[in-house]
Amino acid sequence: MEKGKMKEISEDKKTQFRWSKPMSKELLKFLADEVKKGNRPNNFFKTSSFVAAANMISKKFDIKYLPDHVENHLRIVKNAWGIIAKLRNQSGCGWDENMKMIRMSPDVYNTYVEANPTHEKFLNKKIDMYDEMAVVVGKDVARGSCTKSFEDIVQTCEETINVEDKDNGDSETVKENDKQSTSSVPVESRRGRKRAHEDDSDLQNISAQMGEVVAALQRISKSKLDVDFLYQEVMRIEGFEEEFLGSAFDHLVERENLGKGFLAKNDRLKRIWLEKFKESN
User: Ranges for the Myb/SANT-like domain (predicted)?
Assistant: First the structure.
């Protein structure tokens, strides 16, 4: 390659497209800033954000990346987020806030991993870049509330479209400072301050926990079908055309009980259901 010229990424060789760890770090940092600026309305990034992110990566790493590459990488992060959210709300799982780890007893772990081998990397080990993912792909994360510096990130993602790299690393824990006034104030003021402090504590707890919104919605309103999570679970199943998965998703949304049943199944049973649905249509 001639000096000063960017390397071109062939659109016909997507399996060779790689996101190095530094690239992933810069992308998450950039998109987190976009969230703070309000450029993710209704939980969807604006097209301009993807264009700007691609230009930033291209310039910084001297290689031509396109907005589609950014969006594809973000889709991988979202899929991982969906699995983490599901596991955090899974019966038999415990959440270690300090370690950012989903804990599962050995007996339950062995049975679950046998049925869901792709989920193994999220269990009984520290989840890398947990808080960063919350800012970038978390639903309704408070604007500008990322208290952890991205310069403190130790481990970042490296993967191809086929998610080849599964290395694990360490990420630091977000520390929240909770300051309370001890001065003497009128009862009305103390009550108002107490309520404000309680609200602030709730926000801190939400931003510190990954998968907080999805898990909370499922706990608070189990009678309602989480359509967003259902979409993620349907579309991540490999081996089917996107159009077919879209039709299956529409079918499950129209039949809420079927949708709930689909979410309760493991990956093998979900695939069987989709195969049967395909045969019947």
Answer: 18-112
What's the mean pLDDT in 46-68? 90
Tokens of 4: 């000063």
Instruction: Give the pairing of strands 93-96 and 18-19.
Output: unpaired
DSSP string of 113-176, one letter each residue? HHH-GGGGGGBSSB-TTHHHHHHHH-TTPPTT---S-GGG------EETT---------PPP--
Q: What is the pLDDT of residue 178?
A: 44
Is 214 within the bounds of a domain? no
272 domain residue, yes or no: yes
Q: What is the pLDDT of residues 101-111, one digit of tens each?
A: 999 988 888 99
Looking at residue 151, its amino acid is E
Asked if residue 139 belongs to a domain, the reply is: yes
How would you class 161 by CB atoms within 10 Å of its CB: exposed for 0-12, middle for 13-18, buried for 19 or more? middle
Query: Which range marks the domain in which residue 79 is found?
Result: 15-160
Distance of alpha carbon 105 from alpha carbon 125, whole angstroms: 12
Does residue 123 share a domain with residue 27?
yes
The answer to whether residue 181 sits within a structural domain is no
Domain finish residue from 114, 133, 160 = 160
Query: Could you tell me which residue, 143 or 77, shows the higher pLDDT?
Result: 77
**Among 160, 181, 201, which residue terminates a domain?**
160
Summarised one tens digit per residue, pLDDT across range 113-134 is: 999 999 998 999 988 778 777 8
The answer to whether 102 touches 126, Cβ cutoff 8 Å, is no
